[in-house]
Design brief:
Structural class of chain A: alpha+beta
Helix content of chain A: 25-40%
Distance between the termini of chain A: 43 Å
CATH architecture of the largest domain in chain A: Alpha-Beta Complex
Radius of gyration of chain A: 22 Å
Order of helices and strands of chain A: HHEEEEHEHEEEHHEHEHEHEEE
Number of strands of chain A: 14
Oligomer: homodimer
CATH superfamily of the largest domain in chain A: PurM-like C-terminal domain
Largest interface: A-B, 95 and 95 residues
């Protein structure tokens, strides 16, 4: 039994098939060619290796902040985004939310045998665009290939390393009664866009994801002298998941006023059609900020000064601890418990 | 159309099925329960959260070193190892090889719907054991669930952050003519163990992987005053892939003497049976070191002082640049080019 044919090459070469082959993941010549021909030139136009097995970095000015996320979104491309930019923005945003200046990224790719190399190229181009926009660099990486059927196209994992901007990072344990809760823009756009693309729901125009980075919003807040108590991008589980996390970490009750939450007409329409609550739908470039009451209006103005966030709004307040962790004031004026999201309305949303 | 049933719970609960369900990946209550019941207590026996979305770390003493790898090994458990310890040791070893002291890890898990929770528990137990052995901490993490058929059981991605031990890290660009090349132990054990387990080849005793961390070996080298020119664990592509990488980065020709390479009888037997060259078979706890000629014997003694590495050997030398990047001296005494590994003899080996 030999696993090789006579040429020593048991699998089709990529340049014959135009697709990812198992040999691309084996750490030998084919892996090197995949990196040198398809990945490094896109990530590093000078043609040098874009990443090392382990990268030595310059010393940091502030305390290190580390964040990681895997991305399994389906489909790989959707209106307003794609798995590549999601993987960059998602991890950059996690660092920003923790009070860090994002600096470095690692990128690990799990590719399915048979993935068209043109698809890989397109995703890597989007990654390259996103890292330039966020002013971060990919400095370490890895590529694995799994046999056809063992993964669905492509999964990405990014880890971000940044440095803390201020000695005391924002965090929900510092929430105070009376703090205002702001949202940076209309909610639910990412979840509805991915769901519509995956299920081929034909809306016209197709709903677009808010997939993007939050650097400008955060810069605007700090430039205005705001000291946010807590920041959190409202990804999986949406605004409701963040409010529940904050309620748990702070021991306070949070109130959200439905009439103040910005929601686009298309998201509202699709959510109603599908029986989904926009408060539980995923976002990818929209975050919640909690600020002291006297900084609320100033924080709102700072956010709205950024074109992407001109629909930012004050949507809630931190209350004394009540019987339920999160309360929603419905349009009717009635207050109800807001349940922690507990279904899987939107698997593979990010 | 509603994606929920009347209870708001569209998928079976994990405690009904004993398996991973899609809701475990949705960022709401089920995700929190998975973390609080299955993951955090194993990684952090005090019961506190084992990781954060983004973790703020103490300042580093040396320059930061970052490394990442995804692990897709099949089967998840094999003689001598498992995907969990592989994911910890693999990334810790990458940091060690770059001259860093490993400190922190992030862990991202992609789980397939239907994975038995008992399997997840067993893997997380192995991760917990491995991080204790390496004296590192997992401080950031993520969990995604993909529908049945979209991934094969479980994929893990770890990213390691460490600090540089010395101002000038080892690297193959510093290789000098005459440098000795050492291997830390018998080669090919991981690849043969995984292949035997996957293909259910019934060898008795079953070949065991060398899956393990290299902290003790590296400590022994530094304690003996060795300044390694280059260090590299011989994972995918085996010893041959490392030699080719070093030859390319240094511009030198490397010679490896087949008669000096330690190979266990069981690896030699299985490799011959399968038509594989042990020099190209993956290892997971075995590395190459290049050292100055006058430090060669001392380095060998230091490695052999560690129980795990008592079969370390000097296997090669750095030569002037010749016509082929890597030359192997066969048992016959004849010298031949050693080709860069270029097949996929062992997909999903790590």
């Amino acid at each position: 039994m030999s696993l090789f044919d006579a040429s020593g090459c048991p699998f089709p070469r990529d340049d014959e098939t135009g697709r990812v082959v198992l040999a691309h993941g084996e750490g030998g010549r084919a892996t090197r060619r995949l990196l040198e021909e398809h990945i490094f030139p896109r990530l590093n136009p000078a043609g040098l290796p874009a990443w090392e097995d382990a990268a030595v970095l310059p010393a940091l000015a502030g305390a290190p902040v580390l964040s990681t996320d895997s991305f399994v979104v389906s489909p790989l491309f959707f209106p307003g985004g794609d798995i590549g930019s999601l993987a960059v923005y998602g991890t950059v945003n996690d660092l920003l939310m923790r009070g860090a200046r994002p600096l470095w990224l690692s990128l690990s790719m799990i590719l399915e045998e048979g993935l068209p190399l043109s698809t890989l190229d397109a995703v890597v181009d989007r990654i390259a665009f996103a890292v330039r926009r966020c002013d971060v660099k990919i400095i370490a990486g890895d590529t694995k290939v799994v046999p056809r059927g063992a993964a669905d196209g492509m999964f990405l994992t990014t880890t971000g390393l940044g440095e803390l901007r201020t000695p005391s990072p924002p965090g929900p344990s510092t929430l105070q009664i009376g703090d205002a809760i702001l949202v940076s823009g209309p909610i639910g756009r990412h979840g509805i866009a991915v769901l519509s693309a995956r299920e081929q729901l034909r809306f016209d125009p197709p709903p677009r994801s808010d997939c993007g980075h939050l650097s400008e919003a955060i810069e605007a807040l700090y430039a205005a002298g705001i000291q946010p108590r807590a920041l959190r991008d409202a990804t999986r589980g949406g605004v409701a998941a963040v409010l529940h996390e904050w309620a748990q970490d702070s021991g306070r009750t949070l109130l959200v006023d439905e009439s103040q939450v910005p929601i686009g007409a298309e998201v509202r329409g699709v959510a109603e059609l599908l029986g989904l609550d926009p408060l539980s739908i995923a976002n990818e470039g929209t975050f919640l900020a909690a600020v002291a009451p006297k900084q609320a209006e100033q924080a709102l103005a700072a956010l709205r000064s950024v074109e992407l966030h001109r629909r930012a709004a004050i949507i809630g307040v931190v209350r004394e601890t009540g019987v339920t962790p999160v309360v929603v004031r419905r349009f009717s004026g009635q207050e109800q418990p807001l349940l922690e999201p507990n279904g899987a309305p939107l698997p593979r949303i990010c």
